Every structure is written in C-alpha cells, then in structure tokens.
Amino acid sequence: MSRLIPHLLKTFDGPKTQPIDLVYDIVFILNVNSKGWILDKICKVVERASGLHCGWVYAETNSRLGVPLPKARAYFYAHYNLAANTMARAPQVVGAKNFVYFTHPDFSRGVSASEMLVAFDYMDGVFAMNASDRQFLIELGLDPEKIVTTVGGVDLAMFDGLDISKGRSVGFVGGYYERKNPRLILDVVKANPDLSFILLEGHPDEVLNTGIQWRGSPYAEEIAGLANLDLVQARYADYPQVYERMSVYVSVSQREGGPMPLLEALAANVYPVVADTGFARDVVTGEDVGIILRKDPDVDDVTAAIRDALTRSRTTLNEVASRFSWEAKGALIAASMNLDPIVRTYPFGRGAEGSAFAREGWHAPDSDRIWSNGTRATLQISRGYGQRPIEAVRLRLGLYYTAVGGLSVKIGKNIVSVSHCNTEQDFLVPVESGTNPLITIEIEGSYPRIPAEVSSSKDQRLLGFYIKSLGLI
To answer: Is the pLDDT of residue 258 over 90?
Structure first.
C-alpha cells in the first residue's frame, strides 16, 4: 500500500467543519500546464455559471501545488492526481466541499486507482467527461450517486456563419501527444497524396507548454516534408476560419476525454471521423452525425472512413453541436455543486457590528435595531469589507407608521422600492462594480411620527423607519 493512503485516512479523521474566515466560494486547482487549454476553459465556464467569488491555483505539478492554498467553501480539482495529493497534504480542505473533474485516467504514473478512490470517497461530486469514464469509475467501486456526466462543450457563437462550401481539406486538431497517435496521423497523410490535410494546433502565444507543439516534436522534420499537409498554428479565436477550410475532421487518438475538437467540428458543419474513445459514442449516435472507427484502426481503416466521410452531407451537423454548449456544461456543473451565495449578515442595535455602518439620519441604537430620525438616512460600507467582493446588499427594514407610506433603497443607480410597507421585509439591491472604496446606501421612507403623539408611548423621538440587519452577498 502506497504511503499516500495513510495520509488520506488521517486527513479525513473527524467531522467536516466549515471555516469561518472564508476568502473564496470556489478555488479551482489546475496544473500550470493546463493554463489556456481545455481544463482551464472548463473551470472558467463553471466560474461564470456559478456567479460566485472564485480563486485560482496553478500547481507546479500534479503532486505539488508550490503555492499557498487559499481558504474557500469549495475546491474544484481539474485532475484526479491533484485531488488526491492536495487532499492528503492540505488539511484546510477538510472543512470545505470538494469536487473533481475526472478525465484521461492513467495509473501508470502518479496516484494509483486505490489512492484515487480513497480521495473520491470524500468528494462531494465527481464530474465525468463521458459515459465511458462514468462506467469505469463505477466498476472501480465509486458510488454512482456521486458521479455527474458532463459531455461538452463548444462555443457555438464562434462557428456561426461559416461557409461550408469552402471546405476541401481533411483536418486533425490538437497538440503533440503520443496518445494522439502521431505515427498513424502521418501515415494516413502519406497514404493519401491526392487529399489535402490540415494539422491545427494552438498559437505559441497561447500555449504555455511548448513541449506539446508539433513544430518542436520528433516528427517536425517529417511534417515539413509532406507537401499535402499544412501545419497551422492559430490563436483560438481564429480556429473557425481554419475549420472552414475542412470538409472532414479526423481523430485517431488512443485515449481522450473528448475529443473537444469533435464538437467544434460539428459546430462548423465538418463531418467527423473519430476513434472509439472519450465521448465519441456520447456524441456520434449514427452515421448521419459521424463515423466511429474500430478499436486500434490502421491506415486502411482510416483512409476508407475518410473517403466515405467526403461523400456525406454536412449541412445540419451544427444542430447536433447545439446540445453541447459551454453554457449548458457550466450550468450543469455549477448546479450540481449546489453552492448558494454566502450572505454575511450583520445585526443592528446597541453594540452590534452593523451599527457601525450607520451614517446620517439615525438615532442612537435601540437594543435590536436603529431608527431613522426622519424620512432619509444613509449607510456606508467598505467595498472590500470581509475580504470578499460585494455583489448585492440585503436589508431588513420596517416603518414605524405602517398604515400608509412606503420605503425605497438606493445603491448607485439601483433602486428597490415598495409603495406600501405594512410589515417588516427584506430589500435586496444589486451593487455595481466601481472604483469608489465605499458603498453608500440611501434609504427613504414616508410619514415619520413621534410615538408619544400618536400612542400611549412616552417616546418623544421622531421615528421614520428602522433597520434590523444588513446582509452582504
């Protein structure tokens, strides 16, 4: 048994407790080599879909973070190696929720399958990239209830308006990895001198790990000598124009989580020929969508499939891609994480923390609230109060004279009001981003009264409205 497992078991000895001095809602943990690539993109769409305050850690390796781990409500690991190693060595994750994106299993290096499962047992969610990976995890012994399959995604808008009549070439897409089957790719190109091929990879400006570029690979000289192969290095924003030159997309990878270019090809109405790996079978459900190669295809298999693909209709392939948008993928993962925005609530009253936010227009605090001394009063709070950005404010307000009159709350250009406030209620007001270090909250109410004049009370103060609490979201 590896030394890592006892570390894991010790880490999780005891109940979960939530840290009280949280800095982030979610911290995404990725290998630095993932920066700018698919796993980085997946984390960014989850961040956007969640609408929460997120932090990022780019680890030196899958076994070593190399930087401090910020406190958070949840940690999202972009690889199972990072999950197991971080959970074994960073005790602060115990009090948080933990999620992992599972893809490209390879237990010949890094943590073993048994070590991974120990960590996964304490995960709150495992996101599998395809049905095959989901089944693999179940067969290893992971609880199926923890697994969510999230196929996708693709930026559909990027590929709108392409002219499919320009497509003539057969395209391969992706950086240099041995698992991409480079030998077979080049042998297919050589076997079909009458066809035009494109090999598309990322631009050096957008690729942090230069070791995965074809121009620096052991095959660079051979690629340069192939007259019917065009090696294109493009920024991702320019990928659609390269896909527009393709009629057929081919992937002969031996192991994939995706391949993600399969969805890009469909969005661009490029007919796919793909190896039976990753989410190929989740997406290609028939030959009207694409061709799935047999296991371990040879040059003849790939050539025959390409020749077949060149005869296929491809005018409506983008309709298939529409089911796998990045927005849908991010929304599914964010919803599965079930992290509602944190509301930091500050009570008002004598000695209460919230009372320090009161500025103009208030009486001295009562025991559980503060009253306004007229129709208008203000609060101010630092934009960075509590070490977290403020996206909205929730105020618990009420009127003294409830028979008539209303209340309004204004923060910047945002106003929330009610014309008749006869009960105590919450007002939720968005806060716009800005450079002013202070957020000013203006509250207005109508018909202030002196209790001693309208009731048996001896209170001679002019009372308009009161605030009981303020919540920062």
So the answer is: no
